[in-house]
Amino acid sequence: MKMTKTKIAIFVVLGLLAPLVVYPVFLMKVLCFALFACAFNLLLGFTGLLSFGHAAFLGTGGYVTGYLMINTGLTPELGILCGTLAAGVVGAVYGKLAVKREGIYFAMVTLALAQLLFFVYLQAPFTGGEDGLQGVPRGALFGLIDLNDNMNLYYLVYAIFLFGFWLVFRTVHSPFGQILKAIRENEPRAISLGYNVTQYKWVAFVISAALAGLAGSTKTLVFQLASLNDVHWHLSGEVVLMTLLGGMGTIAGPLVGAGVVVTIQNFLSGGELGNYVSIIMGVIFIVCVLLFRNGIVGELQRLIKRNFS
Amino acid sequence: MSTDYVLQTTDLVKEFKGFTAVDSVSLNIERGSIHALIGPNGAGKTTVFNLLTKFLTPTRGRILYNGRDITTMKPAAVARLGLIRSFQISAVFPHLTVLENVRIALQRKESNSFHFWRSEKVLEPLNAKAMELLDQVGLSEFARTTTVDLSYGRKRALEIATTLALDPELMLLDEPTQGMGHEDVDVVAALIKKVSANRTILMVEHNLHVVSRLADRITVLQRGAVLTEGDYDSVSADPRVKEAYLGVAADEEVSAEGGAASDKVEVQERVSA
């Protein structure tokens, strides 16, 4: 599926019109998780690294933004920027420790480090412990545009999402992205060609962590809440599900995956099946792994390729 | 000692938990030659390769490359010095196109390989050079093909093109014709001969026909140690080599004739001593 200019334009316009039809807060939730999944996919889909602790970066972005918005009266754009940077810094440190390991050990190290941070956020005085940070003010963008209006906020979130999506796209289709793909495809070969692969993995890790932080910061602004759920390993698992379901290693996959997962969760939690969300998600995951491993977008691409080329 | 050696090892040893895979191997690879490393399965050929390219760290011994001690360097750093290896299983990037495979190697010498904010269009100036390399190995018509769809022989040819892209001073080829049909073997052998101009090649190879055609010098390994070294004629005439390398055939002869079994034991004792 080539990303032609017309297709991109159609998607952008659809995004602009969507809040006229669908509840904006729901859309914003989808966009935040989609950005999170895109960031995660940069590592899993394009570098071949399975991080099992990405909630740490989402949560860090959320807490830092929340804390600053409540306590310093920062404008939202600066709050988001600080949250993103903080997640990037945590990502730089964690990445340094994790990228030297491979495969399952990489996953274990990222999980362990994320759990460490979970405990810190549970105990630290500035996070509100079990209660989290509640009533985070949305403020006014650049001090001018009131974000308490859901439509205004939606367009900010949408712009942030487009930026993040573009950055992932740009990274994947850059000279750097070529090397990442080479590492994913055959790491020993990349080494034998003289590439210092840990350095490339680290840069990818930091970009991914910062973008996950950006998603977390934005999410805090939307829900006016930063809580332990954002750093919990459940969320690290959920993002794996979103990416696999949508199609890992495809640009649009995480967006679709996040949309499907968030929609299902919202749909179920309102009804009688609310208690069975985990079971249903689990079944979907199993079906996905057994029947369409390339994910929704991956399978669609294959169909299109088979029938039209 | 006036000969110019590109790579020298002295008493190289690699032990794995009490098992000595490589036992004081001293190699001298002459500049501009094709040097073959042969020996029966488990003789430690691939381990030697991994030691030379730093994918393994030697337990003891020294490796000199152009007179420089590379014993403790990292694999990527050794590669940047111009010592490039291939792998036993074909080392390509399967889900990239053939052109991209070669370009990945060409990119190494560019300064933009960390530029994640730029379009990959900046790599297009490299395409001409990549096509030239693909042309050399007869793959130019497959430039846009996804590598995974290539035949095995062509993947190996692509691997050689990728290695050539770095203009290596010393190429290490790990069984370049392994698992190939006759036609492919001849094509790859001719290719190796062609690219050996102006560079040194060290190869592990099972196919003695290929070795006889290509190699200027042959080192025979057995049980991790050097059994003998020389040109093809002297090595192939050596009875110990027949015993060791053609062990199976020799055994059959031995059991058929019912004698000479003690010779073999003696050889092995001498080798391990």
From TrEMBL, chain A:
- Gene Ontology molecular function: branched-chain amino acid transmembrane transporter activity
- State its location(s): Cell inner membrane
Q: In its keyword annotation, does this UniProt entry include Mitochondrion?
A: no
Q: Name one GO cellular component term.
A: plasma membrane
Q: How does it sit in the membrane?
A: Multi-pass membrane protein
- Listed InterPro entries: ABC_transp_permease, LivM-like
Q: Where are the transmembrane segments?
A: 6-26, 33-58, 78-97, 104-124, 153-172, 239-264, 276-296
**First and last residue of the signal peptide:** none
- The domain of life is Bacteria
Q: What's in the keyword line of the UniProt record? A: Cell membrane, Membrane, Transmembrane, Transmembrane helix
One Pfam family this chain carries?
A: BPD_transp_2
What protein does this entry describe?
Branched-chain amino acid transport system permease protein LivM
The record lists the lineage as: Bacteria, Pseudomonadati, Pseudomonadota, Gammaproteobacteria, Oceanospirillales
From TrEMBL, chain B:
SUPFAM superfamilies in the record = P-loop containing nucleoside triphosphate hydrolases
Q: Which UniProt keywords apply?
A: ATP-binding, Nucleotide-binding, Transport
Q: Name one Pfam family in it.
A: BCA_ABC_TP_C
**Cellular component per GO?**
plasma membrane
> Domain ABC transporter spans what residues?
7-248
Q: Which GO terms describe its molecular function?
A: ATP binding; ATP hydrolysis activity
Cell cycle: present as a keyword of the record?
Answer: no
- PROSITE patterns membership: ABC_TRANSPORTER_2
InterPro entries referenced in this protein's UniProt entry, alphabetically: AAA+_ATPase, ABC_AA/LPS_Transport, ABC_transporter-like_ATP-bd, BCA_ABC_TP_C, P-loop_NTPase
Q: What is this protein called?
A: Branched-chain amino acid transport ATP-binding protein LivG
